Prior knowledge:
There is one protein chain. The protein is of the alpha/beta class. The protein has one domain (17-148): Rossmann fold (3-Layer(aba) Sandwich), CATH 3.40.50. Helix content is 39%, strand content 15%. It contains 6 helices and 4 strands, in the order αβαβαβαβαα. It has helices at residues 8-17, 28-38, 58-68, 83-95, 117-123, 127-138, and strands spanning 20-25, 44-49, 71-78, 104-108. Strand 1 (20-25), helix 2 and strand 2 form a beta-alpha-beta unit. The longest helix has 13 residues, at 83-95. The chain starts with 7 loop residues before the first helix and ends in a 28-residue tail after the last helix. 20% of the residues are buried.
Amino acid sequence: MKKFIPDQSKIKDDINKLREINLRLWDIEDGKRAAEKLEKFNISVEHIDLRTISPINYELIFKSIRKTGKLVVCDQGTKSSGFASEVITRILENEFNSLHSKPIRITLPDTPTPTSRALSNYYYPQPEHIIFQISKMFNFPYKDPSATINSDDFLDVPDQSFKGPF
């Protein structure tokens, strides 16, 4: 059976019209804040909050990928050998043809966790980092947040909405 391959220029036009994205989160609050800000750019975020990573409902993720065609995975683990890598690998193995652009992984860098405030401000991704990466996917201007980080600010603190045990 032959597979129809449409005109590549029409595919690009269709992708630019589709302003919906699938966001997989292991860091819930930052993703929610990023999704709220992305609405200002007319980008709809299908946000799936993964409560557990074992077991994980991959069928739910696959269904969403078939709908949006785009994927951003946010994880508070490292880039190499992390949860985000596993999710993206499963998507590529099972739903590669459903993707309209390469997946984006937003994680901690592959370096030891810093212990000083000045270094930690550059280590942890913020909602603006999520928006910046998505802006590249949708080709709209957004300033790189890394350029505006002040090493004297307190970024490595729990959000006010956090009601955790510490």
